[in-house]
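Review form for a predicted model. The reviewer records the input and the model, then writes brief findings.
Reviewer: anonymous (R2)
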Amino acid sequence: MGKIAINIATGSLQQQEMIVGIDLGTTNSLVAIIHPESRKPVVLKEHDGNALVPSIVHFDHMGLVTVGDEAKNYLIAEPQSTIFSVKRLMGKSYNDIKERSSFFSYKVIDDNTESLVKIQVGEKFYSPVELSSYILIELKKRAEHILKTPVTKAVITVPAYFNDAQRQATRDAGKLAGLDVLRIVNEPTAASLAYGLGMRNDETKTVAVYDLGGGTFDISVLHISNGIFEVLSTNGDTYLGGDDFDHAIVKHWIGQKGIKEEELNAHKSLAQELRLKAEEAKKYLSNNENFKSEAAGNTLELNKAEFQKLIHALVDKTIQCCKNALADAQLTSKDIDEVIMVGGSTRVPLVKESVSKFFGRKVHDDLNPDEVVALGAAVQADILAGNNKDFLLLDITPLSLGIETMGGLMDVLIPRNTKIPSKAGRQYTTQKDGQNGMRISVFQGERDLVKNNRKLAEFNLSGIPAMPAGFAKVEVSFLINADGILKVKAKELRSGGEQSIDVKPQYGLSDAEVEKMLMESIQHASEDIKIRALVEAKTEAQQLIDTTQKFLNKNAEFLLPEEIAKTTKAIDDLRSALDSENKDLIHQKTESLNEISRPYAERVMDMAISKAMTGKSIKDSI
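Model under review:
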């Protein structure tokens, strides 16, 4: 006899399996479902009526993790071990964010490479994927507590401009949290679905989605036809949002009180206290004329007119982005049928007025702007669950497809549940000097190590011109046609040499085997991510050892004896750490070697540049 779950609180029958919609936000995150009785999307709320989980993670001195409101309390007291705005770091290297590194009050590792960023808390190193997974675990626990049923499947939203690496990082975070991520959905698409747009097959509309959150702004222009959403253009600023409104208020106050920026940098707690007061003022002034409070013995005041003046230039910046998005889509404001407001910062009256004036129409703001993306994710989840019969689900890839990279890792090019036909490509490079061939091994599956996945095909790309490691550019592209045939092509971009192969990924796999592979990926997610992190740390460390050793050999005459001695010791320490199988120790020793070699590497580079300016050169390939 089968079991039926009943929610004791409401007496209603529960579905055995619930697919939830998750808005994983820069500032706040939340979960929504389609209510089984009303069939309407609803955000899951605790007894206090709160739906938002602040996207904040705190680590105490024992390494214990707290997330959300509880973690928010540590922003002032322990800024160095309280991580916020981690979404800004998803799929990014340090070089991508170094201009803005002062924004983060925690330590983002500067390894001067293109590898993905790491965050240091005490002696431990975390990736944005791990940090995001803690937020998703909290959301999963909250959903299970409210629904009184296990939650294992989800739809997660991302900005429309997120690239392949950022989308994959979001999937990985879901997997690490014990969630089977059925679909990654663009936030503007989700917002449109929440308002019922695109739900009718006979509907054709052009929609602008204006999304101003805590840390980011983006405007997306969508064309909706027969239930298919096409992103015509996106524009925005990944460093413009409600946080900047707060910062404008803080600058105004410190100017009034004669506090210097250096004082704020030195006293992170005062900076956080003023930031939180500014946030309070911003919210209060949406419905009131005057704000008054105090912080650290200072009286703080602001009226609505002053506030609007402070943020006017920032709001104008968003309107300029709207103009750019329309130009890119080759449209005018008159071509836009609907304007949807998303993100908590759209509550600011000046924002609403400016957007309405620019597009020349009333904006959609009936739904809670903090909740609208999560509500839309729940609508998409319901479609995937097969509960919405109006939607025909197109053929999809049942398992992820990718290739083997250094250390036996799986690099996914086409994630599972991607609609077919579909194509994707990525560039790779050589590991060794003078390498003239590359083996392309194609795998299918959800695990981080290829040895746990299913091998589909393998071929060699030969004839790569002899170059130093890292100089060759090999583009690998995957194309799945409507019949489910996968064509894999590898092309060396400098020489034009290419190889390709056709495979049928689904051949010989039953539904039960696919389900088994998916379950194993969720069960082993934690150990898989640990292994991936260790392999990546080792690979990065070995590359640093090789390049530093090469640099020493070529430029010893320009270095001081103590610099050579210190570097040699740091290399030996890093080699010893490689044998330890301890990811955090490897990162520590990598960081130490970086810190020792950076000053003299920059000095020698400067010498090379100044010599080149006078028509001489010291060494080739410094």
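Findings: Residues 401-523 form a domain with the Substrate Binding Domain Of DNAk; Chain A, domain 1 fold (CATH 2.60.34.10).
Further findings: The first strand starts at residue 19 and ends at 23.
Recommendation: see findings above.
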